[in-house]
């Protein structure tokens, strides 16, 4: 795969997925500027996924519009199509995550839903 500066790509970063523009290239990574959100990051402790009884239950924000992220080259793929607006894509990603969190009634689902609901109020107020 031959990606270059200014290419529009999808990139996985931690537990989120974004559409962005390549702004720099290193030996093993691309620097990608966020343009839209495809998947909102998972809430909670990444080292203990889907566990609610952890020392610190992390609230994980989506990366901001135009925020830069260093992404391993293997996690970056070309994007085809029209790039949605950041705000619309973030709302869609939040709604998707909230829908997934209402399927089960576990403590992790409840804590994650509370965290994403608080983030939603912050994002869109």
Automatic annotation (TrEMBL):
One Pfam family this sequence matches = KapB
Mind listing the UniProt keywords for this protein, alphabetically? Answer: Kinase, Lipoprotein, Transferase
Q: Which InterPro entries match?
A: KapB, KapB_sf
Q: Is Lipoprotein set as a keyword in this record?
A: yes
- Does Transmembrane count among this protein's keywords? no
GO MF, one term, reads: kinase activity
Q: Which domain of life is it from?
A: Bacteria
Q: What is this protein called?
A: Kinase-associated lipoprotein B
